[in-house]
Each structure stands twice: as C-alpha cells, then as structure tokens.
Backbone:
C-alpha cells in the first residue's frame, strides 16, 4: 500500500504549474496517503517521494529538501490528517472531510513555502504569499476532487482499507 500510494503521489506531483521566481505549484497527496496509512507512515511515504524527486529528477532540489519535507510532508500530511479526523467527526462523510482537509493542507503548505521564500530573501514576502497561495487555492480544488473521488471509490469497494488503529 505504501509503494502504491508513493507511486500515485509521485506521478501527481510531477505535474507542475509555474508560479514565478523559480517556484512551481503542484498537488501534494499527503492527506490521501494519511487517510490510508495514518499520519506518521504517510509522512515517511511523502519524504521518500521528495528524496527521489530531488536526487533523480532535480525537482525541488537537495537544498530545498528540508523545507519540502516540513511544508508538504509534515504540514501537508500530519496537519491535513488531523483536520480530516476532526472534520469527519462532524460531517460523518469520509470523502468530503478528506477533500476539504486536502485543500486546506495544500494551501497552508504553500503559505509556509511563500513565507520561507520571503524570509530567505529570494523574493519579497508580499509578492510570494499572494502568488503561491492563489495558485495553490486552485490546485487545491483539483487535489480535493482527486482525494475525495479516490477515497469514495475505495470506500465503496474496500472499506476495510480505510480502517486505521486509533492514533
């Protein structure tokens, strides 16, 4: 399951949208992985995807690996998972809760990236935040749709794959 999700996420992340200043926007997949694997195992899956992208494809790069793991692997996965869990308590709708959490995690991860770029002096934070967040708000809609649809399909066919031990 870990390998299959890593491959799916890897493929989804390779579809980049230019944002400007050498940055790009793309889907994350962290919430999708966390719903199936739990937040900690999903974070390991995400880190392995970032490492392979950095080493083999120069996507993200070695120097940005730490920031990518924090922004997408921790914020995008762990934060997103707990948003999903808490939303699902109220909505009682796993696909919808996961979709909303995926959108929120993607947007928050892009905000963290924009602030980091601003703090590094690469680009003014007043330019980076609106550029990154606006693009990722749109990409987040696509990610929310893919996450919700994937989980709804699995829930209809193999609901046992969505049963996690209590975290």
Residues:
């Amino acid at each position: 399951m870990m390998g299959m999700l890593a491959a799916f996420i890897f493929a989804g992340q390779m579809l980049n949208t230019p944002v400007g200043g050498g940055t790009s926007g793309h889907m994350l997949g962290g919430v999708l992985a966390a719903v199936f694997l739990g937040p900690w195992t999903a974070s390991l899956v995400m880190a392995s995807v970032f490492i392979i992208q950095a080493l083999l494809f120069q996507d993200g790069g070695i120097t940005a690996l730490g920031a990518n793991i924090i922004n997408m692997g921790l914020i995008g996965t762990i934060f997103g998972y707990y948003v999903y869990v808490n939303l699902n308590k109220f909505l009682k709708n796993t696909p919808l809760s996961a979709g909303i959490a995926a959108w929120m995690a993607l947007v928050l991860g892009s905000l963290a990236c924009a602030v980091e770029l601003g703090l590094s002096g690469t680009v003014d934070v007043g330019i980076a935040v609106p550029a990154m967040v606006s693009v990722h708000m749109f990409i987040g809609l696509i990610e929310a749709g893919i996450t919700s649809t994937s989980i709804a399909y699995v829930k209809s066919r193999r609901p046992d794959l969505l049963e996690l031990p209590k975290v």
Q: What stands out?
A: Residues 125-157 form the longest helix (33 residues). The mean pLDDT is 87.
